[in-house]
Design goal:
Blueprint (H helix, E strand, L loop, with lengths): L8 E4 L2 E4 L4 H10 L13 H8 L7 E4 L5 H8 L4 E5 L2 H13 L5 E4 L12 E7 L9 H12 E12 L14 H7 L4 E11 L8 E10 L1
Length: about 220
């Protein structure tokens, strides 16, 4: 069992979860989607709504770790060409069903975030709602490299992740501003890392987070 903030583990609602390199990491998420995970709020995260309404999200969009597709489908409804990927088949099945029910055009694929390069195409914008903060330290550079393979030059990556300012005791590992700067120090331009709120249906006030705006150079 890990500790909050360790490089190999994270927890949710006081349950500690093995890190991504452990086989039980996927087992946790598969079980989570048999019910309703705390991060599945039934609507898009407001931070991404605000980005879209302010015109910061442009062109074709890839949602990495899309879950049941609420952020992706919101952007599809706003006229973007959208793909969503998640490693959990049940989450993708739900995303596809929602797209059909809402008569929205979006592509959803079962794909691990460490294999994004296998998609074989690039996007103008990539959004990340709670994926980066599940990565172990060794997996961060692998993810960043894969991200560079699917994001066009001068494309935007918007990442919402738990902040170290959020009190310990539940949820995923916390991410510091320095960790973000270190992860994207080569080949990227960090435009902004600002305080934000990560919404969940288990915490009405939400959780303190960082919203990062990063450009591939």
């Amino acid at each position: 069992m890990g500790r909050i903030g360790s490089c190999t583990s994270f927890c949710i609602e006081n349950v500690f979860i093995p890190g991504r390199q452990s086989p039980s990491h996927m087992e946790f998420f598969e079980k989570a989607y048999q019910g309703r995970p705390p991060w599945d709020i039934g609507r898009p995260q407001q931070e991404f709504v605000q980005l879209e309404e302010s015109g910061k999200i442009s062109g074709d969009v890839l949602d990495v770790g899309c879950g049941t597709g609420e952020n992706a489908l919101y952007l599809a409804g706003r006229g973007h060409g959208v793909w969503g990927v998640d490693a959990v088949p049940a989450a993708i099945e739900t995303s596809r069903r929602k797209a059909e029910e809402r008569d929205l055009a979006a592509t959803f694929l079962v794909k691990d975030a460490l294999h994004l390069h296998e998609i074989g195409r690039t996007f103008d914008t990539v959004i990340d709602s709670g994926l980066f903060h599940t990565l172990s330290d060794p997996d961060r550079p692998r993810f960043v490299w894969n991200l560079s393979r699917v994001l066009k030059p001068e494309g935007s990556y918007f990442m919402l992740a738990f902040s170290e300012l959020e009190p310990a005791g539940y949820g995923p590992r916390r991410i510091t501003r320095k960790e973000i700067w270190d992860a994207f120090s080569d080949g990227w331009r960090i435009n902004e890392i600002r305080a934000a709120v990560f919404e969940s249906h288990t915490r009405l006030e939400g959780s303190r987070a960082w919203l990062s705006s990063i450009t591939r150079v």
